[in-house]
Amino acid sequence: MDEGYAWRKYGEKSIQDRKNPRFYFRCAYRDELGCGARKQVDRMEDDPSLFHTTYFGEHTPACPRDAAVADLDRDGRRFVVQASIDSFRACLPAEGEEMPASMVEFTAGYCWPLKDQMANLVSSDVSFATPGELESLDAISMEELMDLLWP
DNA sequence: CACATTTGACCAAG
DNA sequence: CTTGGTCAAATGTG
Fold first, then answer.
1. How, if at all, do strands A38-43 and A51-56 pair?
2. Which positions of chain C lie under 7 Å from any protein Cβ?
3. Kind and range of the H or E run holding A105
4. What is its main location (predicted)?
5. Is the CB of A10 under 7 A from strand C?
6. Secondary structure (3-state) at A64
7. Which end of chain A is more exposed for a tag (fewer CB within 10 A), N or C?
8. What is the C-alpha to C-alpha distance for residues A17 and A1, in angstroms, rounded to an integer?
9. Beta carbon of A52 within 7 Å of strand B?
10. Which residue ranges make up each domain of chain A?
11. How many other CB atoms are there within 10 angstroms of residue A29's CB atom?
């Protein structure tokens, strides 16, 4: 699953008692920005179509993200929402499923593996002073956001 | 050309 | 020694 960051693969190693090799990635901006973020990806034993990803370290705030940007006016305020577009797509409710009532529910309920990163993406936005302000987003504005991202 | 990925070498720890 | 993690030269991709 794409969490929106740019990674560079730097290794691949067979692991004892494991059928599949482990893949090693580091932030693509390690040299440029001194970012120390890394991750390891393993194919799962029981379901080879799934991968288990372990993260190490934090990204620099300056690390570019693969972001979608949406602008909308609501109650005279200007909202700017940034998110990894692939992450959002991957987390969209299935056909027939209900759209969550708020952005908080959306990120918490549907982006479980990415919950922290998604919450960070949204709450670090300049338009929202605190994460609590996200609670005020209702279902209608969520739909507006979706319309803007996928007209 | 400017990047990224592959892959065996290399290395530190146990 | 073995094991897991990283480096870097060769190779791939546009």
1. antiparallel
2. 2-8
3. helix A103-110
4. nucleus
5. yes
6. coil
7. C
8. 25
9. no
10. 7-56, 67-149
11. 19
Question: What global pTM score does this model have?
Answer: 0.56
Q: Which helix (H) or strand (E) holds A25?
A: strand A22-27
A148 in helix, strand or coil?
A: helix
Assigned architecture for domain A7-56: Single Sheet (2.20)
Task: Please answer whether residues A114 and A87 qualify as being in contact, where contact means their C-beta atoms are separated by less than 8 angstroms.
Answer: yes
The count of C-alpha atoms lying within 13 angstroms of the C-alpha of A75, restricted to the half-sphere facing its C-beta, is 5
List Cα–Cα distances, A61 to A25, A29, A80, A130, in angstroms: 19, 11, 18, 18
pLDDT one-digit tens code per residue, A3-34 = 667 899 999 999 999 999 999 999 999 988 88
How far apart are alpha carbons A90 and A84 in whole angstroms?
A: 10
Report helix, strand or coil for A125.
Answer: coil
